[in-house]
Structure formats: C-alpha cells, structure tokens
C-alpha cells in the first residue's frame, strides 16, 4: 500500500467485531457485534464497511469488492427502486435493507413506492451496501467532506470518508470545489460502502472558470452524466431557485447562503432567464432515471440566520420543490427534499409539516437546523439541538454540522465530533418516535452502568475510545475498570451501590412486589440496619 | 497574592470590557460591552463579576466587596424577597434585577409574589449581584463544582467557580463531599458574585462517617444553620423521598441515582421511619426564612435512564414536592423545584406541565435532561438537546452537564464546555419563547458575518477565543481577519459575496421593493452581466 494512504483507519471498533446476518437469497448484512462481559452480545447497525472487518483486506487502489454486482439483473424493465416498488417488486436492495432495519421487506417496498422513503443506489456504485432513508426507518446521518481551493488533498478526503463511516455516517457528500474534483470523487466512490452524494453545479462552475454567467444547460448536463457514470448515488439540484424568487432575498439579513443557490441566482440575474435546472428538469429526470440516481432537491434559499427563518423566499422555493417532486416521481426517479439551515426551535416543526404537505412526504433531509447564531465554534451543538427536534418531527436524514462551521474546513477530529453529535440527535429522535429497536441499546448501556460493568459501558457507547479515556483520566488503574464506584463520588458516596443494596435486601426477603415490600419493611428495617446499611453514592447532580 | 491562587482567570473577555448601567437609587448593574468595528457596541448580560473588570483589584483572601451591604435595612419587617413582594414592596434586589433583565420592577415583584420566580439572596452573602430565576425572564444556567474524596483542592474549586461565571454560569452549586467542606465553601462564597447553592445532606453525612443510619434531624438542622450563617443562597433538600416511595424504585432499571435521594432512602429503610426532612419541614422553613435562603426541592427519585423516565416513583415524589412548596410559601420562603434526569424527548414536556400544575408554577430547575443513555463522553450534548427542549417548555434554570458526566470529575475545560453548551440551550429556548431581547445578539452576529467583519463575529460569540482559534487554524494571517471569504470555499466560492453583489446591484438601480425589482430586472440583467456578475460562494452545506 502506498504511503500516501497510510492514514486510513482500519480495524474493529474497540469492544466489538464485524459479524453478518444472513437474509433471504444469500444476502449477508454486516452488523457490529459488541461482546459483553456477562457472555451476552449486543448487535448494532453498522455503516463502517469492510474497514472494521479484521478479516478484510483493504486496497484503496483496487477499491472495495462489488457487493451488488448482478443484483440489477432481474429487473431490467424497472431499473429504479421506485419503478420496481410501484410494480410491486421487492428488489434485492429492499431485502437487504429490511434485514438491516429489522423490518418486513414489504414495508420497505411500500414506503419506497409511495415516495416516503428512498434507497440511493446508483447502478454504477456496486460497492455500496444498500440503506434506506425515510421517516419510518432509523434516522440517518450524512457527513460532508470535500476539499476547497484553499486546503486539503485527495488522500485526506478518502481518509475523512472512512473515518466518518467508522463513527456512523450513513451517507457521505463530496463537496469538493478545488482541483481534481473528478479524481477525488472516483477514489471516494470506489472505496465507499455508503451512498455518495454530490452537488454537480460545483464541478460545472469549475469548468467555466467560476463565472456563473458562463454556465449552460449543456455543460451542466454533461457534468451530471459524468457523475452518474462514476456512480454518484444522489445529487443536490437547486432547481427551485426561480428567477422571481431572487428579489425576495434582497431584504434578508443574510441573503442567500447556499452555494448552489447563489450560483443559480447569479445565473438567473445575469441572463434574466428562468433557471435552466427548472426549465430542463424533465430531461434531468431522464438522465437520473437511467442510473437510478436519487434527487436531493436543494434548498438554495434556505435561511442563513435566525432572522431569515421561514420567510417568503424559503417557503416559495419549498413549494416549487413539491412541484418538481411530482415530476421526478412521474419519471420513476427517487426524491429527497433538503431543508434549513438556521431556524429557532419554535419554527422547526412548521418546516416539517409544510414539507410533508407540499412535497407529498418525500424524505426530508435537513442541515441542522442551527437554533441560534451566537455560538460559532459550537455549531455542532447549536444545530444538534435543532436536528434532534426536526428528526423527532419527521426528518429522515440529518446533514451533520461540525465545530468548524462558519469558521474553517473540518479536520479529522471535527468530522468525528460532527458525526457523533448527529448520531446522538438521530438516536434521541428515534427514541422519541418510539422506533421499535431504539431503546435496546440505552437499556443495555444503563444496565451495564448500574452493574458497574465499566468495560461494557464503554463498548456500548457511541464512542468507546472517548468514554474510556475520560474515565481513565482520573482513575487509570486497571482495578478501577471493575470498581463499584467512580471518581465523582468516590467509594463511599455511590447511589448505584445503595440502590443495589436496597434491591438485594428486598429480594433476599421476598419483597418482590410493592405491597409485599410495604408490608415487610416495618419488620425488616431493623435487619437492614444491623447488616450495615451503609450508603455510598454516585454519579452526578445532587 | 499567594501562589496557590495563581490560576484564577481575570481580565476582560476578548473583544469586550466591563461597563455599568445606572438604575434608580444609585443601583449600578454590571454589563459586558462588546465594541464593534463599525463604532457601535453591543451590551450583554454579565455574570462574571469583578474578575473581568480591568479596574477591579482581586484579592481572594479578602473576598469581593459587599455590594449589598445595607440593602436589607429598609425591610426588617419582611426579611425575605417573597414576604416583601407579597406586601407589594419593591426591594433594591428587585430593582437591580429589573435593570439587569431590561424589564419593569413591577414585573419582577409580581412574579416573585406569586412564586413563579425566585431571587436567591442569603442576607449573609452580600457579595452577590442579585439575579432572578423564573420563566418570564432569561433562562439561567447553573454550574456544579465541588471536590470529592478522590480528587481536587480548595484552590481548584475556587478557580472553577470564577471560570464558570466567566463563561456565563448564573449560579454555582458547591457539591463538595471530600475533606474541608466548610473551608471550601467559605472561600467560594466570599469570592462569588453569583448565588451559591449546596446540598446540606452531603456535609451532614460526612459528619457521621458516611453512615446514613446515623443521620438525625438535629445534626442535619445544625448543618443547615451552619451553611445559612455562611451565606449559602439556595439549598437542595430531598424532602420528597418518602418511605412509601422507596419500594417504587425496586423494579427500576437504574434504581435511585440521586445522591441525596439514596441517602434518604437508606435512612428511611434503616429506621423504617418517615424522612426527617419531611416530618421537620416546617422547622426547616423557619430556619431558611431567617436568612432568605431559597429551597431547591430535590428530585431524589429522578430517573437515571431512559427506561425509568416519568415513572411512578418520579411522579409520586413530584406531587409531594408540590405539597412542600405550599408549606414553604406559607412561611414566606422562596422555592424552586428540581427536575430530571434522563428523559426521551417525547416525555420532556409532560414533566413541565405536571410540575407547573402540581407545584403551583414554582420555577423548574432541571438537570439536562439527557435524551439518550448511549453517549457517555458527550453527555453535555445528549443533555443540551433535552435542556433546550425543556427550557422552551418553561424550565427557568438549567443545571449543566459536562462531557465527564458518568465518567469522572469535570476539569476546567469540561466546566467551560458544559457552561457554553448550556448557554446555547438557554439562549435557543429564549429565542423560541420570544424573549424580547434575545434575538438582538443573533442579528448582530449574523450581520457581522454577512459583512465579513470577522473580529466582530468573534467578539459577539459565546466563546470568542475558540471562534478565533478555529478560524486561524486554516487562515492565520492577519489579512484573513478582513478577507471577504473563509477557508471553506475560498475567495471565488462565497455566497455571502454574491448576495452582497445582488443587493448592491438592486440598490444602485433603485430596485428597493419586490415589485420594482421584478419590473427592473428584465432591463438591468444585461448590465449586471457586463459588470462581471461573478460568483464566489460560502459557508457550508450545499
């Protein structure tokens, strides 16, 4: 392996190993198996691909194996997942997804057929492990990577992709705008087990020397075809930025903050013509249909500040995205809708309701939203708050925001912090929505915590490395991993311990129901004291 | 100054300076003044005390000046703020608070009188700058500090207090359980400009060698009096943990996780007697009344995991806290109610509604809540999500959670991260609640961002140091501070820039209304192109 790729991280995540669940028709779905000290194990959804499989051989020059080679063979008539679903067919991708989500394949098919879920799988990206985006399924997280004219290299971006999926990113967008866009994307696609999204207008703009007035439908179309051929799974298209909406942004506090949105606004103004993305939208649908590329209809007029949230420009564009959704679906092309941006908490739910109403429940894919503008350096948190809220309300996929948002390009650490923050938001939303499998992991971790199985607690965490490092900072010695206390309260102040004492006492004395306990306590309390009912307590707060 | 106190941080926060607003009757309320590069300034609420005043002389051995010396002189008849408010009197503390919050003093008085807000000011803590906790006012943040038997010193804890209020903590709780509890508290109180809270049962337990069975009302009472004399402003009292509620926790996944709750549960079991905190509650009220110490009625049975949220044990205790609230108020003692804990998002709002209904709208003071159990190492985030949600619903003060929660004692960096995270949650809630002053800072920062006033953007941030450091990581050179781009997109890809071009173009051509713009654009678009309508774009996402 060449030295330039040395930095890609491989190997199992601490405390777990790669395993596979066998589905029908020879389908093998990867999972991450966490071994617990009590002999049990806990399986979790796994996005990390072969990189965390100790048995896999990774060669970044050769790329990943073509997992889905031949899968499309039996559906030449209905090339897209949407067309198949409409025809009542359950594709291999749907079966894979059903095993992965722990649901019936019929549910997958029905949600895809009605457009409420998408399976982004370009026929030219056979390396990908199929996944589904829709509000009936686990909430997904996207990580943005990509170099700019100012900084970073192909190798760094591939490393960020592998790093992002290690920590749970379900899809990755390559937003490169610098040199070697094609080569960077090729390297990412061939090595990515997750769907890759792009914004083709970035590359188109590079081709015309960054002058938006020089853009044309033909140049854009050729760029899209180039990317479809490479295997891009979904594409952001800002086809809702109409000429008549541009003036609606003039009085905004922060105008147009979407790159794609501002490129198209500039083009519309320069030509005083309607956006070529809008006027040629049906042709675009035909191209995407041939490869089963999914539309991610971009919100080019999303608010860039609390002040501009839910304004006329934003909502006008959203309504147009609904119109485009219906056109795309008529062409059997899958559609997601992108959402804001910067939105105060009280205006978040309205975004979901309007999107569902106007865009016929197409999966909503939102950036944050950031719930305040005042914390640059912490926008993973300002937006994590909004992300959890909007996902609870029905958003299907969350685009992460890193601590560097508004300030600089994310490095490796920022990518991890962004992904973990958004995994938290997504999982909190899944719990709130009552997803049938979500709470199992919380219960497993809390039980490990209560029973002082420190290693299990670390292994069940979203980030075992950090959990253990924080613990070891104050209590590094090996015995502390099995100690019945932590550094916060010390050995004599642990509430977990006293609770266990109370419980043991109740069980030993047959006090297994509330009534029995109440009846028995008068008699038994003396014993409890005699046995040394000593309190030693925990964890936090008061 | 002795070397042991060298680590206390003094000096103005980057980009700002201490100023004062003059109120009636010679009251001077401290604020933080952020100077902007356009000659304007932006004032923000300031919790940091004299430590950020470049003109102040700090001597930790002597303590802070007694700001409120003599203020109680004119209300001997009504010693507590609640008694004064009920009598229709506006105290100096209420006037101070009104200036600080930017509202009418009558509103402050009325909210205190009906028990919906509290002003925690022990008559023996004259160093404190009065503040108010209530849902009609800015959402407040508490930071917990305190050493344990395992780690940390008096000096470290004083430093953490000063550090926490520098970043915006409105109150600080000293949860020390190790040696020298009295001395640590004394040093903190004499140097604290914010209210200090404690949990007296911790010290009481130390006095009996950590054996809860040895606790007694008399010992507890004497400990409370000792702390009242020192100047503690509010005290957590777990008087709602009744004997009959203890069995309700036996079947929980994580039992009792509150230290105070488990101490009292152990005492009740050992003696098979009703909690002495409950049976002696009226006597306790009389003690607190004499010093105007505020009750923070503790939720000793709060859930320690998602599984245990909103269960019978938790809600039974909450109802008892309501009963105790009415007793305390009858004694003219101010009351807050503490809340959970670990709660999934869909069960958060119910906590606020029940608290308001059962506890007559006493200010709710919640720990998080954590919205999932699966992310130790990131519990500032799991709980920041819940904190924003519960504050939007009406919680008046949020108790922070640091990244070390469940894993170890927070260090200085953790304290800062916890405080900033909770300032974000509090501010996001204030925006969502439509607080009349909240959005000004968002607008000021977003305008600075849009106009590429990088230094102003840093200065207006919750954490100017981190914002600037992140920016400088990729673009350290001095000219980048005034550059019209950032490292994410580079000079030719900035949407802020194109938006400004669109706006300038519109203004130059008299296109100042939507109609005028629409009418004029056909004619003008040629010009825009001729003038080089070049796009250079931004910031994030797509």
TrEMBL record, chains A, B:
EC number: 4.1.99.17
Cellular component, GO, one term: cytosol
One GO MF term: 4 iron, 4 sulfur cluster binding
Catalytic activity reported: 5-amino-1-(5-phospho-beta-D-ribosyl)imidazole + S-adenosyl-L-methionine = 4-amino-2-methyl-5-(phosphooxymethyl)pyrimidine + CO + 5'-deoxyadenosine + formate + L-methionine + 3 H(+)
Binding site for substrate: 144, 173, 202, 238, 258-260, 299-302, 338, 365
Binding sites annotated in the UniProt record for Zn(2+): 342, 406
Essential cofactor(s): [4Fe-4S] cluster
Residues annotated for [4Fe-4S] cluster binding in this entry: 486, 489, 494
Catalytic class of the enzyme: lyase
Protein name: Phosphomethylpyrimidine synthase
The organism of origin for this protein: Pseudonocardia endophytica
């Amino acid at each position: 392996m060449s030295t330039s790729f040395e930095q890609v991280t491989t190997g199992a995540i601490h405390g777990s190993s790669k395993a596979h669940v066998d589905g029908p028709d020879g389908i093998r779905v990867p999972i991450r198996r966490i071994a617990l000290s009590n002999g049990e194990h806990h399986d979790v959804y796994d996005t990390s691909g072969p990189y965390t499989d100790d048995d896999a051989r990774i060669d970044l020059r050769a790329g990943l194996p073509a997992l889905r080679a031949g899968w499309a063979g039996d559906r030449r008539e209905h090339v897209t997942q949407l067309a198949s679903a409409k025809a009542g067919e359950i594709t291999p991708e749907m079966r894979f997804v059903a095993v992965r989500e722990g649901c019936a394949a019929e549910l997958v098919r029905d949600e895809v057929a009605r457009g409420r879920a998408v399976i982004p799988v370009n026929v030219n990206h056979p390396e990908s492990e199929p996944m589904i985006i829709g509000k009936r399924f686990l909430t997904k997280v996207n990580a943005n990577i990509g170099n700019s004219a100012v900084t970073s290299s192909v190798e760094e971006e591939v490393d960020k992709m592998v790093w992002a999926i290690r920590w749970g990113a379900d899809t990755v967008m390559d937003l490169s705008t610098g040199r070697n866009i094609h080569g960077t994307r090729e390297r990412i696609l061939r090595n990515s087990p997750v769907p890759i999204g792009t914004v083709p207008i970035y590359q188109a703009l590079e081709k015309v020397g960054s002058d938006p007035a020089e853009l044309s439908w033909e140049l854009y179309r050729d760029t899209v075809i180039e990317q479809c051929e490479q295997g891009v799974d979904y594409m952001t298209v800002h086809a809702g930025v109409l000429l008549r909406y541009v003036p609606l942004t003039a009085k905004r506090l922060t105008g147009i903050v979407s790159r794609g949105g501002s490129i198209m606004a500039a083009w519309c103004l320069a030509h005083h013509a309607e956006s070529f993305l809008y006027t040629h939208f049906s042709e675009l649908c035909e191209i995407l249909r041939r490869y089963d590329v999914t539309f991610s209809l971009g919100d080019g007029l999303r608010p860039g500040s609390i002040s501009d949230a839910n304004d006329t420009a934003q909502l006008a564009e959203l309504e147009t995205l609904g119109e485009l959704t219906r056109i795309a679906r008529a062409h059997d092309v899958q559609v997601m809708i992108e959402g804001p941006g910067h939105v105060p908490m009280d205006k978040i739910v309205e975004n979901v309701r309007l999107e569902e109403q106007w865009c016929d429940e197409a999966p909503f894919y939102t950036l944050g939203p950031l719930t305040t503008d005042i914390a640059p350096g912490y926008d993973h948190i300002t937006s994590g708050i909004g992300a959890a809220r909007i996902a609870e309300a029905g958003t299907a996929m969350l685009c992460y925001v890193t601590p560097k948002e508004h300030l600089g390009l994310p490095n490796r650490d920022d990518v991890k912090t962004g992904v973990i923050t958004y995994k938290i938001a997504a999982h909190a939303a899944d719990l709130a929505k009552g997803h049938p499998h979500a709470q199992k992991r919380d219960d497993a971790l809390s039980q490990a915590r209560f029973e002082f199985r420190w290693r299990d607690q670390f292994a069940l965490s979203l980030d075992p490395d950090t959990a253990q490092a924080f613990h070891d900072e104050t209590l590094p010695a090996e015995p502390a991993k099995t100690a019945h206390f932590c550094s916060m309260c010390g050995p004599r102040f642990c509430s977990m311990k006293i609770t266990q004492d109370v419980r043991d006492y109740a069980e030993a004395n047959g006090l297994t129901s509330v009534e029995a306990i109440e009846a028995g306590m008068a008699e038994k309390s003396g014993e409890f004291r005699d046995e040394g009912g000593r309190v030693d307590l925990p964890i936090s707060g008061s």
